[in-house]
Amino acid sequence: MSKDLASIMSGWGYDPNEVRARYVRVADGTQQIQLRLDLGIFQMHLEGRPDGESPRGLTSLRDYYVEEELRAPDQTLPNGLDPAACADLQQEVMQYYYRMMAFHALGELGGVVRDSDHILDLIDIVSEYADDDEVAWQFMQLYPYMRMMNIRARTEMDLQQGRFAQADKVVREAVLDLEHFYADNFEPTNEDGSPVPPAPELESLRELVREIDRRRPRSEAEMLQQALAHAVELEHYEKAAFLRDRLKNLSLFGSRSPAKKRLHPPGDRESAN
Predict the structure, then answer these.
(1) CB 208: neighbour CB atoms within 10 A?
(2) Which residues pair with 41 in a beta bridge?
(3) Distance from first CA to last CA of the chain, Å, rounded?
(4) What is the reported pLDDT for 235?
(5) 83 to each of 95, 104, 120, 237, how far by Cα in Å?
(6) pLDDT tens, 112-126?
(7) Spatial CB neighbours of 143, under 8 Å, sequence gap ≥ 6
(8) Among 58, 127, 247, 252, which residue has the fewest nearby CB atoms (within 10 Å)?
(9) Domain spans of the chain?
(10) What are the start-end ranges of the H helices in the chain?
(11) Model-level pTM?
């Protein structure tokens, strides 16, 4: 059997401007995921660690440190993470990052959420326990991008289920979170005094708030109000007057205010005869 990879990559070229991924059936009959890179192909398991390993007898290093933290006094690890431990965690971050991007390319939103959650946990662990602050900062710099990817995937899942209010709430919370992150860790101005432009991850989430509003179903009153504003802007005054009447009539058919309701006990109404 030839070990040449050319036949595997044939017809599946690398494009630096596009993430390319596919599902494949392997020899044992299970499905795995492949990611096309410039020098070849990554093949990854769909569950657990992408490389299929079980470090320290657990599904992942994240799981190991979470369990150690839960068992520790005050749920705090007694020892910090030395450079070797951080290097192992960085390798796990990269594995989950590559699979997350493959899931994203395939539109597998649940996979994007799971793997970005995993990476966010690793960032949190290293930022908390790394012996070297510089190493901790290397992990923390990944936080805005991973937070954005996680929220975008969660939001799309909510929107597909019609949970517009939930989606809006989650994204706005993430916007505030990243605003605080940048305020705490970056200067607001450049050395020449000019303002630092908004981070792309933050702008992406702000645009997502606007997208949710655009996709949200409108009530009849909201649609009439939008049409009215457009008619006024175009100086179509007859149409505007018609739309105002429609809005007024619509409000008249709403429920009566509690102050105007006169409730009668059953059988206590006056006879019409």
Answers:
(1) 23
(2) 36
(3) 99
(4) 79
(5) 18, 31, 19, 71
(6) 999 999 999 999 999
(7) 120, 123, 181
(8) 252
(9) 162-189+197-217, 218-253
(10) 6-9, 61-71, 83-105, 109-129, 133-140, 143-160, 164-185, 200-215, 220-233, 237-252
(11) 0.80
